[in-house]
Design goal:
Blueprint: H1 2-26, H2 30-48, E1 59-64, E2 72-75, H3 85-97, H4 100-111, H5 126-141, H6 144-158, E3 161-162, E4 167-168, H7 175-178, E5 181-184, H8 191-199, H9 205-220, E6 231-234, E7 241-245, H10 257-274, H11 277-292, H12 316-332, H13 335-352, E8 383-384, H14 385-402
Antiparallel strand pairs: 1-2, 1-8, 3-4, 5-6, 6-7
The structure holds glycine (GLY).
Glycine (GLY) binds next to loops.
Length: 409
Amino acid sequence: MKTKGLILVACVICFVLACRTSRQNTGVNVDKALSYCDTQVKRTLSQLRNAQGEIDYSMMPRNIMDSLDTWHCRKAAIDEWCGGFWSGILWYNYEYTQDTTIRNEAEQYTNALKFLSQTPAFDHDLGFLVFCSYGNGYRLTHNPEYKQVILDTADTLATLYRPKVGALLSWPRHVADYGGHNVIMDNMINLEMLFWAAKNGGNPYLADIAVSHADKTMKHHFQPNNMCAHVAVYDTLTGDFIKRVTHQGYADESMWARGQAWAIYGYTVVYRETRDAKYLDFAQKVTDVYLKDLPKDYIPYWDFHAPGIPEEPRDASAACVVASALLELSTYVPGEKGDEYRKAAVKMIGSLSSNKYQSGKSKPSFLLHSTGHWPNGSEIDASIIYADYYYIEALTRLKKLEEGRDLLI
Ligand code: GLY
């Protein structure tokens, strides 16, 4: 009896220590960070209301430059690639708070993007636009209208697939400038919507397109050291690979932080959807080269080879994308390596949640210090909506991981 009692006490102590250890190990108070996001979402919503208290749901928050404290909004349009992130943020915020007023706002902003399912493809960004908005909306509500929008948009995205190349065309408007069929690394993110559609009543061919795109990209988009270029160009007629060049990075052979982040996230998704070990192996390769040269706080400079490091701007958005991806990847990779990925993600989220990176009272965005397009001189050291989107996604995933829940449901 006495022994049983002692065992019970020992178990309770171990359990309490384990809980404390996991909280200490993460060093992130996820609920505090998600409550902070809720506060910032409400500040943003009140900023978006006009004097009559009305919101123009077609205007999507895009960025806040360093010197400003109000969102610059852009009209939802086929050529505004960031139009779906704000409604995605609202859906994640609703998922955490269960606040029906937030759900109502999420629905209104999501509905403002329906036209994308009824318009010919302008470029590859349809996955960003529709899967972050309608995708999260459907995940949380199972609204059949949302499902139809996603299925229709996946079919539209598929019109950019060129069998001769075996990949989607990212920027139809830039075929002449780049000298052929251009594929950008960001395009990997749009594959998730094709996989989803193929499994949810769409044409199974959509998954074949996604796999072909991932394979072609794996073959040609990376240097032997596993760093990706931003753009790969293929001969439109023969499909032959021509060259790798940059668009938003420092140089053709440098590692543009967000490009590599898209690769890490993209191949993690392709592994999830195919369970083919070659993608798991590749996701680790593209991750390992990224983790190797990070600054101490795990928030990358905008390009790992930018010449002015350590004075170069950071890109918090890349850290958000990678943190979210690594939480998922850590669940597929067994043993120490998986732990290493989870710890790296937690370290990123910890830094992002510090006063250095959170906007706090200074602005209604979640985060500061992202870099959009350095060669263009745009959105440098700014708050950018996709950083906030992947930050709240990463926090939501971390909370589910801590609670032993499925990250993706
Ligand atoms: N072109 C999308 C990005 O800036 O990552």
